[in-house]
Specification:
With 481 residues, this protein is of the alpha+beta class. The chain has 17 helices and 20 strands. The structure holds a DNA duplex (12 and 12 nucleotides).
DNA sequence: GCATGATCATGC
DNA sequence: GCATGATCATGC
């Protein structure tokens, strides 16, 4: 180690020295700052892979390795690069999840979080660059270099995620893994999904698709957003924030100690005392007054029950939890279907199921607060809340709807998309401001904007299976019927 | 009563 | 101005 140290432009046993050197990347491109021969360099405008390799090789001079040790082995720091993209509404956001290490199904259950994940990925040096497919990877601008260590409360959630993934592997359910069961850390697919991308797994004969641990895009956004520049090194760090800054959204942990062993049960406990209460009484109990007429009334009330005064809960934003309120009729079935974002007919035909917006949203963890009008014309009551991930078989049903929609759009058969009677899980229906709110199809004609919906009955089933109805029956028995 | 087509209301 | 979450209204 000390031999090669002589020739490095930084001291690889001194974290400060590495950070000082890394800080010089800020605002530059690899061509400007790394020392490699552009003439003989590989070319690709798809920066993925090439950018990271060039950064390691021609800037930090790290030998390519696949060993389970951090890149800066003497200081226990892992080097990562990740693309960011510009969006219309949200500014610069993460383009994709940040992939960490491959999950070895055969050995993960012999490992401990501390000795494996934390050791290899507990401390990161992340180089954020602006993704741009019009120019070479070495011409893409570096936006920020962040020295990242996880705040303890985040690390705890990550450890839970790691345990969730490890447990599924141990149970012989590696083939069911997806990103939708976890919060910050995800098990993302690695490879194109061909036969060669499948691996053996313990306690099951079913081959499981190769997956890697990754930080979800939502968490990458958090890192990008919340790190502030350290004057001395020019590198951004999270430390200033931990001490005295408050993020844009309020944490669910505000004013409450996290003594439970589980993030979700901690969240759910906040709701216990409101179960069975009328909305108006909940407002009184909390000491707030919301606009009952607002369509987001129950959503706002839910946040307030968690003690959140802002528009969103920080941990929900950082883990991309999809919160949607459910409204039940007196007979315990859902009042309405559930809409998702409208789709652009032409864009949809360019996607595959795996890259589709619909699949992406279904791969999220959901949070459902449930309200009910217990009897006709009665006051609305809070029934409870629960977290949910879409079961694998239901995902397959949704895929059928998506694929059917794709085919029919291609054949200009847009008036005959799947209805709620034709599929157990989802259907397609208009979702527009009015009938003039249209979108162009591949045939050049304009059709009213539509989106995928969860069937009303499917939502009823989700609620039934959640168990929350039985849970409150006791306390509500006199009120309800 | 419910599915389906259509639209509302808020916030960014 | 528009996406988004949510709900209305008609007709079978």
């Amino acid at each position: 180690m000390s031999d090669s140290n002589q020739s490095l432009p930084y001291n690889d046993s001194d974290e400060k020295s590495i950070l000082l050197y890394a800080g010089k990347l800020n605002g530059h491109t690899l061509k400007e700052i790394a020392s490699f021969d552009i003439e003989s360099a590989r070319t690709s405008t798809h920066s993925k892979g090439f950018f990271g390799q060039a950064l390691e090789e021609f800037y930090f001079y790290i030998k390519n390795n696949n060993i389970a040790a951090p890149d800066f082995i003497n200081v226990g720091m892992e080097l990562k690069s990740t693309p960011m993209k510009k969006t219309k509404g949200k500014g610069i956001v993460s383009k994709e999840r940040l992939v960490l290490s491959i999950i070895d199904y055969m050995t993960i259950n012999q490992l401990e979080f501390e000795g494996s994940f934390k050791k290899k990925n507990g401390k990161l040096l992340i180089v954020f660059y602006q993704s741009n497919n019009d120019v070479q990877y070495y011409d893409q601008k570096i936006l920020k270099v962040v020295h990242w260590t996880y705040p303890p409360e985040d690390l705890r959630i990550i450890e839970e995620d790691w345990n969730t993934i490890s447990k599924m592997v141990t149970e012989g359910r590696s083939h069911e893994l997806s990103e939708r069961f976890t919060h910050y850390l995800g098990a993302c697919t690695k490879g194109m999904g061909h036969e060669r991308d499948y691996r053996e797994q313990p306690n099951s004969d079913i081959p499981a698709r190769q997956r890697a641990l990754s930080l979800k895009s939502s968490y990458v956004n958090k890192i990008f957003r919340e790190s502030t520049q350290e004057e001395y090194t020019g590198v951004f760090t999270s430390e200033a924030l931990i001490e005295n800054k408050v993020g844009a959204f309020q944490s669910v942990f505000s004013n409450r100690d996290w003594t439970d062993d589980n993030f979700e049960s901690f969240v759910l406990k906040a709701f216990d005392k409101f179960i069975g209460m009328k909305c108006s009484d909940i407002e009184k109990e909390i000491g707030i007054s919301l606009n009952v007429a607002s369509k987001s009334y129950r959503s706002q009330l839910t946040l307030n029950m968690m003690g959140i005064k802002t528009k969103k809960a920080k941990e929900f934003v950082d883990s991309d939890i999809e919160m949607k309120t459910i409204f039940l009729k007196p007979n315990n079935t859902s009042q309405e279907s559930m809409s998702f974002s409208y789709f652009d007919y032409i864009e949809l035909t360019k996607q595959t199921w795996e890259t589709s917006d619909f699949c992406e949203v279904l791969d999220k963890r959901f949070f459902f607060p449930v309200f009910q009008r217990p009897k006709k014309n009665g006051d609305v009551v809070f029934k409870g809340a629960f977290f949910w991930s879409m079961p694998y078989l239901d995902m397959c049903e949704a895929k059928i709807v998506w694929e059917d929609t794709l085919e029919k759009i291609k054949m200009s058969d847009i008036d005959n998309l799947i209805t709620s009677k034709q599929n157990r899980v989802a259907h397609v229906r208009p979702h527009a401001r009015n009938s003039k709110d249209t979108c162009m199809a591949p045939n050049g004609q304009y059709y009213m904007k539509k989106c995928f919906w969860f069937n009303r009955n499917y939502i009823s089933d989700i609620v039934k299976n959640s168990g929350i109805l039985n849970k409150n029956q006791q306390s509500n028995l006199t009120d309800l019927y």
